[in-house]
Design a protein that fits this description.
By secondary structure, the protein is α+β, with helices and mostly antiparallel strands. 58% of the residues lie in helices and 16% in strands.
Length: 170
């Protein structure tokens, strides 16, 4: 990798750190190509990214960002999982780490808060942003549907009564 490619990678990582809500640092303990591809696909489906970057370049990119304190976690063969949804990257990384012993969660950060392994696991157990939105929409729609049912019920009851009288008369 020449100097210009390294500069481009550092600029790309700085951009990622500026736009992301959470960074999860993982340690690769011998993932196969198929496993790595599977993890990347799962991350992409969840709206997250999984990137292997040289630790030295990642440290340069972290300099001056709110994620600078996690630089001390970048030791050994590490990779970065990031997402704008505060839960997505953590959820996918923790779920994948449960299925294989070749991926280890090291720690990470959410905004200015540095998280250890247990913090990342706790973050992964929270509902995602989409799940929270769906719950909120369900709560908002419930009263409206109850009102509509209440308004329509008297007419339906009359129709059933008239139907019963008609059946009785026949």
């Amino acid at each position: 990798m020449d100097r210009s490619q390294k500069a481009d990678l550092v600029a790309e990582l700085k951009q990622v750190f500026a736009e992301t809500s959470v960074v999860v640092i993982t340690r690769n303990l011998g993932l196969s190509v198929a496993q790595s591809t599977d993890l990347r696909l799962r991350m992409r489906d969840a709206g997250a990214q999984f990137k292997v970057a040289k630790n030295r370049l990642a440290l340069i990119a972290l300099d001056g960002t709110r994620y600078q304190p996690i630089g001390e976690l970048l030791k050994g063969p590490t990779a970065l999982a990031t997402s704008t949804d505060p839960v997505a990257a953590a959820k996918v990384a923790v779920d994948f780490a449960k299925t294989t012993d070749k991926l280890e969660i090291v720690g990470g950060a959410m905004g200015d808060t540095v998280l250890d392994v247990n913090g990342i696991k706790a973050l992964a157990e929270l509902p995602s942003l989409d799940e929270l939105r769906a719950t909120l929409i369900g709560l908002v729609q419930a009263p409206a549907s109850k009102i509509a049912r209440t308004i329509n019920e008297p007419g339906a009851m009359l129709a059933r009564v008239f139907g019963a009288y008609a059946a009785e008369a026949a």
